[in-house]
Structure formats: structure tokens, C-alpha cells
Amino acid sequence: MTFFRASRTGSFCLIMAVAPFLTASAAEISPPAIVTPSATVTLAEAIQATLAQQPGVEISRQQVLVRQGELQSAGGRFDWVVGSFYSQEVARTSTGAPSPLPSEKRQDISVYGIGAAKQLRNGISISPQVSVVDAKDSLASPAPVSQSNLSLTITVPLLRGLGSKVANAEEKAARAAAEAQQQFARYQLEQLVFETAEAYWNCLAARRNHELLLDSARRAERILESVETLARGGELDSAQRNQARALVSSRRALSEEGDLTYFQSRQALALAMGLTGPQLAAAPDVAGEFPVTIEMEQVRPTVNEKYISEALDRRGDYLATALAIDAQQALLDEAKGNLKPRLDFQLRVGYAGDDRRLNSFRPVYALSNDLAGVNALGSLNLQWPVRNDVARGAFTSQRARTDESRLNLTQAANGITVSVLVALETLRKTLTQYQLGAKAAEGYRQTVLQTNEKMKAGEASLNELIDVEDRYADARRAQISTLRTYAITLARLRLLTGTLSTPTNQSTVFETNTLTSVPFAPDTLSP
Question: pLDDT value at position 118?
């Protein structure tokens, strides 16, 4: 069962009942809780909806179950197998003897047996068996005879198949693959949470941009009012009036475009949250603010190596790639062992019993009556393929897969390193851009006020006012874009360093404050 839990501290916990090496049937799986969004959603509510009903969460869990099922199947070859058999035979043959001798011989043979077999993880197999043959021959032995055989057969591979590296390779590979899938599932959940956070910040930026465009349209209307007043007083001509009217129309058109962009971003957020059907048509608005900017000291260049090291220790997808090497290495050990010829030593030891009572329980009595032994049989069985192309080809292919998995790990490490470095540098640049952008926006705001007064006094033209209004709007848009990039980069840095969630024994815990803060405190990052 999978369910979502919210704590009073604002943390959210996705409990996965697919713990390592635990299986669950489809009948035991409960559907996820449905979260009905309100008219507006906060970041915490968006994450809650994602974990509760995003199909990707259940897909990830099913992938874990697939691997666990494969592990169970791989280990099943070492289970005890119990079998039984029974046969009844009536055989009639001609004796060819003249009369009055019997012309026909009849044999009645009944065979009962039960046995078990088990292969050990070191390659040795054992098979105890109990069998009884109850026979009656109309000529040689008119009285029925029951003969029993109690035996234990031990088969020891002397070359191919000997040792846990070979015999247990598939189970080891399946176990490593199951562990890798669990690590990758954690990364998949973190990625879903990040995608929702990214969509949320994009949506908030689109809303802010739309509000800015609406404000720009209102400011254009106020300019038009001032131009109309000046034109009625003869201070401005009709061309400038027409220019002001065109400005209002263009700003209104831009606000419509901003409204469409905001609608599109709301749909993207709703999709990331896992909303369906009518919920998508009524996608919620976003409520909240961009995260507060951090101090530059927290992401100084000297922390780069620490961030990269932590990422390689924590990232679920990287750990899954490392575990894939273990899986391929186990199969390579098996393929290498299979290059040897097969030479098996088999030893069978047991007792034989006999009973001749005229009673229906005679086959049972034969198991303990007149026992003789110990009987023993030893044999060697050799199979030596001349070219052995099957095993050699399998070894070559598996060796290539193992080498490929190691190269994948190196490539993944390089990719993580670059991504972390880019995210850290992006964070530093956005902090600087935000500080400069705030100064620019304030400067243009003051310039707009001054230019507006100058135009009323006839000391500035309408074009000058429009120009500084445009520059002011651009500066505010740049601020919004910088804050959006900053917020997304904070969340991405968490994803890249594997600190977006906290794995526990059987759960993955998400806390919303991790999305708006750097992964590591400054005092833990001393070079």
C-alpha cells in the first residue's frame, strides 16, 4: 500500500510498502488518495497533490515490484521441490509352453514413491527419495513381494557450476537490480517533486508577469489621460494623442498575451500535480512568494567540491548505476565459470527393504522390514563441448555489458559534476543579477516619475516618457525572471545533490522547506 502523510512541521512523507525484498500482490495495493485542489494552491499543497496522485509515483512503485518479483523468481531455483509418483502395470506374455503348462505369464507391478530435491547456493544438489515396488509374477513369484528403496543422492559439480559465484549469480544479479531500482525509484520521486516545484515557480512568474503587464496597461492609460489633457490645452498635437492611444492598445494586447501564458503555466502545474479530467479545466491559481535570497557566502566557489562529493554519495540514480555494475559483475562471474567443461560427481547411498506379507499394508511394511545396506553408487559425468562457442560467446557479451556499465558510471559522475557546477554558478549569478536588477528597477521608477513631471512641464517629450516606461517594465520583468531562475535553481540543486528527500527504512520523506534552501549549512562546507 502506498499513502501520503503530512506532518505539522510542513513535511510530507510518501510511505512505500515495497521495502527491500518485500513483495505484495496486486490485491493488496490500495489506490492513492485523491487530493481535490482549491482555487489557489501553495507550493506545499502542490507537492502534496503530486505525491498523492501523480501517475508517475505509482509507475515508479510498480517498477520496484517488477524487480522484486524477478528477485523472488531467481531465488526460487533454490527452493525445495517435492514430488511423488505412482504407476500400475499389468504385463501379459506368452510362455509358449504346451498344455497343460500355463500358456501365459502375468506380472502385476505397482510402484509408489515420494522424493524431494534442492539445489544449494554453492552448486551442490541433494535429492532424498523413498520408493516401493510391489510385484507379483504368476509363474516366478505367485505371492506378492514389496521391495523398498530409501536413498539420498548428492550431485557435486567439480568444474562448471561449482561455487556460489556461479550457482548463485542470477539471484545476486537480481538482488542488485532490485536495490538499484529502489534507489532509482527514489530519484524518480524526487524528479516528480522537482518538476512540480519548477512548474509552480514558472506559474508564479507568469502570474507576476501578467500583473506587471496589467500595471503597464494602466500606466499607459494614465499617460493617455495626461496627453488628452495637454492636447485639449493645445500643448500637444493630435499625432501625440494617437501615439498615446496606440500605446494603450499595445499594452492591452500584451496583457492578453500574458494572461494566455499564465493559463498555459497553470495547466502545466496541474499536469505535474497529477490532476485529471475536469480538474485540469479548473487548474488552480498559485499563492505564495518567491523564496528569500540567500547570502552569497553560502555558495562560495570553495564549496564546489563538497557539493559534488555529496551528490555522488546521495544521488539515487547514481547509486542505481553503481549497483548495476554489481549485477553485471555477478553475471560475468557466472559466464566465466561456464567456460569450463561440466564434470559432475554423483553419490547415491541408501537402504533396501523387503516384505512378503499377504496384506494390503505390505508396501508400507517394506520400508522398515528386512533392511539391508548401506548401498552406495558413485559416478562421474563429463560433458566437454569441443568448441564451446555458446559459453565463449556469452562470456564475451557479458564482459562487454560489464565494461559498459562501468563506463556508464563514469559518464554519470561527469554529468553530475557538470550539472552541480552549473547550478552553483547559476545561483551565484542570479544573486548578483537580483541585486543589480533591484537597483535598476528602482532607478527607472524614479526616472519615470521625473520624466512624467517634465512632460507635464513641457520639458520632456512623450517618446521620452514611453521609453523610460518601457525600460522600467523591462527591469521589473528581469527581476521576475531572475527570481524564477533563482527559485528553480535552488530546487534543482537539491535534486542534483540527492537532498530533495530523506530516505528512511521503508519511506521517502519530503519537506517543502528543502525546496527553498541550499542543501548544506555553511559550517558543514568548510574546505
Answer: 95
Instruction: Return the residue matching grid coordinates 524526487.
Output: 190
Backbone region of residue 371 per phi and psi (left: phi > 0; alpha: psi in -120 to 50; beta: other values): beta
pLDDT at 490: 95
Listed in order, strand segments (DSSP E) in 312-425 are 342-355, 372-383
- R_g of the chain computed on alpha carbons: 40
Cell numbers standing for residue 472: 522600467
The predicted structure's pLDDT at residue 460: 83
Domain ranges of the chain: 2-73+172-283+295-328+399-524, 124-160+342-383
Which three cell numbers, joined as nine digits, stand for 241?
A: 494623442
Confidence tier at 79 by pLDDT (50, 70, 90): very high
3-state secondary structure of 151: strand
Q: What percent of the chain has pLDDT over 90?
A: 62
- Rounded CA separation 127/151 (Å): 8
- Phi first, then psi: what are they for 209, rounded to 5°? -65, -40
CB 520 within 8 A of CB 498: no
C-alpha pair distances (Å), 214 with each of 106, 255, 445, 471: 107, 6, 17, 16
Phi then psi dihedrals of residue 379, to 5 deg: -150, 155
Bridge partners for 148 per DSSP: 132, 353
Q: Are 321 and 409 in contact (CB under 8 A)?
A: yes
Fold of 2-73+172-283+295-328+399-524: Outer membrane efflux proteins (OEP) (1.20.1600)
342 vs 35, which has greater pLDDT?
Answer: 342
Closest alpha carbon to 119 in 176, 170, 76, 169: 76
Give buried/exposed letters for 35-65 (b at 16+ CB in 10 A, else e). bebeeebebbbbbbbbbbbbeebeebbebbb
Q: Does domain 124-160+342-383 have CATH number 2.20.200?
A: yes
Q: How many helices (H) and strands (E) does the chain have?
A: 11, 12
Bridge partners, residue 108, by sequence: 90, 136
C-beta atoms surrounding 259 within 10 Å: 16
Phi, psi of 168 (to 5 degrees): -105, 15
* 284, 266 contact by CB (below 8 A): yes
